[in-house]
């Protein structure tokens, strides 16, 4: 089989803007793997250096995050829609597999988000004492897999990274989870493994179609996929990536996983893994299958609306704090679907901002929940009450994250959801009736959100006082630092959204413009 071409046409939808001399992206991906390989050689838990695995993981993840920030700040041009810092290396030419990495405006903010939350997740794992070498090795592998998903420009490499991250998550839930950890971990792996099969089939079908066999995403995007074939691949990706997003009714693994996972793992699940699903939908369903996306965009919006309302209603039925927040995530990720379905610059921009915003807010909520679980040893809402007096700082953090989640003006959740609404209202390709119904139903979800979140705050922190919980200790300096690292960005983005929007706006505008240029008008 002939080797794949080394240079792509600059006019392709995902063209290369520049190639980098130093492999910064490879360093970002491989540095945590090196750290994971070191872990087996460190002292065992019983030795006096039992904290060494945690400290090494923290140093490596912090270094990795700083490399991401510095590389993007100095080498990434947000005013270019093209791939940047590109690296292409023939890996297994016999099957067409390349080590092909690149970053653009769509992936750049999510790589930063992934690096930040993974580091903070490791910092939140301070009290993990069981099998610490394995635990932090899995976190490091997870960090590499997440970065590789966002940076891969080869379908096989993307799929390998997508599959690789399943293993650490499964083990992190199955070993360090709660009483029903094996059930939750098994349910997670079954859902995601079956979804991965659909992703693989759809990706291979795209790679093998046409005159040119290629796994390179830019070259696949240059092909044309229409008719039943395009619909088949689109639906395969929608279901496959939708499980991770998650979309109704493929979401049922999420409340179980969050309910049993420890707080740091829940931070990763909500903060990064769900965003991988949204990112992949933009990258594959919109960028590679624009003709089919045009046809099915209204269906995507309908699914998003179902997510918003069903997730909110289901949250009311949850008496477990983490399960209620998990259902809230299902609802909030519905706005990502609605934004993607709007097929215009505002809608896609809103979807991107919602992923960034929700990643920070959900991670903050799960972190604070884990903080008071360590002190109360319960997540049952009826078994808690009056914690505001004993834990005033914890209450302040939980209330702030709840207000951000319900889209309080001045916080990131408000600007992201408003942008999605503007995307729908400005899309004249949909009928006025369709737009009005969409906005009305999405607004119902917005009304329900403060009810189930603030009622949870009231019952947990201001309900009847539980005597056994009156002597718990407040958050320490480490926990305060982690909480502030998640909440401050939501305030910064809320008051100054351009700091996030500028990273991806050129890319999302170009993506929307390409649909207009090719006379792709939405069908309602």
Number of helical regions = 20
Strand content: under 5%
Would you tell me the structural class of the helices and strands?
Answer: mainly alpha
Q: In the residues, how many domains can be counted? A: 1
Unreliable segments of 5+ consecutive residues: 1-17, 520-524
Transmembrane segments: 21-43, 55-76, 106-126, 133-151, 157-176, 188-209, 229-250, 262-282, 294-313, 325-346, 352-373, 393-412, 432-455, 480-499
Main location: membrane
Domain NADH:quinone oxidoreductase/Mrp antiporter transmembrane: 152-434
GO molecular function, one term: NADH dehydrogenase (ubiquinone) activity
Describe this structure as you would to a colleague.
The protein is mostly helical and 524 residues long. It has one domain (24-517). 69% of the residues lie in helices and 3% in strands. It contains 20 helices and two strands. It has a two-stranded antiparallel ribbon. A hairpin with a 4-residue loop joins strand 1 and strand 2 (97-103). The protein is globular and about 70 Å long. Mean pLDDT is 90; it is low at 1-17 and 520-524. This is NADH dehydrogenase subunit M. Belongs to the complex I subunit 4 family.
Quick recap of the structure?
With 524 residues, the chain is mainly α. 69% of the residues lie in helices and 3% in strands.
Task: Give the arrangement of secondary structure elements.
Layout lengths: L23 H15 L13 H24 L8 E9 L4 E7 L4 H17 L7 H20 L3 H10 L1 H11 L4 H28 L8 H5 L5 H18 L8 H8 L2 H24 L3 H27 L4 H21 L3 H32 L10 H4 L1 H14 L6 H14 L6 H31 L14 H19 L2 H20 L7
Antiparallel strand pairs: 1-2
